Amino acid sequence: MSATDAVRRLLVLVPWLLERPGAHVDEAAAAVAVDRATVLDDLQLLNFCGLPGRLGGDLFEVELVGDRILLHLAPTFDRPLRPSREEALRLVLSLDHVAAVLGDELPGLDDALEAVRQVAGVPAGVRAAPEPATAQLGPLREAVTAQERVVLRYRGRADATSRERVVDPWELLLHRGTWYLHAHDHDADDLRTFRLDRVEEVTRTGQAVAVARPSGALPTPAYQPGPDDVTVELELAPEGHWVLDLLDGADVVHGDEGTTSVTVATDAPRWIVALVLAARGAVTVTAPATVRNAVVRAARAGLEAHVQHPPLDAR
User: Fold this and answer.
1) How much of the chain is helix, strand and coil, in % rounded to 5?
2) In the prediction, which pLDDT does 101 show?
3) Which of 168, 192, 230, 289 is most solvent-facing, going by the fewest CB within 10 Å?
4) Per-residue pLDDT at 309
5) Rounded CA gap, 31 and 38, in Å?
6) 3-state class (DSSP) for residue 176
């Protein structure tokens, strides 16, 4: 059996033994569905469990009295651990984001957050700046609840500028770390899914939705290639692998030395060009030539814009 299997058993065995002081070895073996020898080997592993910067064995003490097991916890567990200032700040900022999204549904959250601030010594003025997507959640949640039509100022991947979209909002959901809105788009007269980080403004109209949410589960947000899409082939260096998180439906082939070949269909070649430039040489377009040349033109235009201006005085 692997070390992973042993860890999984110990996650079950430790609380089981703490609730049953003096449990028999055979009982413990039956509880995790292994033989007696395996349980005894697992318990030996606890003697190597320690805290960073200290020695193993400072968390658990295992004592065998005949065939009876006595498991003792270190005094460390007798008192709550005080977080460092950095850990407390991360906790407070995370709670700020939760409060911005679910504050109305969790009326006790503000009081709890204030208590954490006082205990951790985080000043009241230190707060998380709301991300653009988070800033739009409030009015959209209210509109979904009220069944009210809204106007979005939205910029899609293929759009050069943002434009207004009149929609009947149906559902908000968080998928792979990104907020989305399922809605009926009156321009398209069909279901559309909008990324909230591309919504610049939400205007509530006061009008009731004209198209009700369909029954059943709505589709998971995913890019659907169209007949006019361009197929782009990319080569990613190891430091450019973060790009994969932004490419839906990509065909990925990992090569030697950390390089990765990616094939993706897109209706927004301009967006691919911007993504390649943002990768600072870690992503290269290998096909088609039209997209590769567009990257070259954009890079040259940016370089010429800098060359035309004299260097700034560094003093």
Assistant:
1) 40, 25, 35
2) 63
3) 289
4) 65
5) 12
6) coil
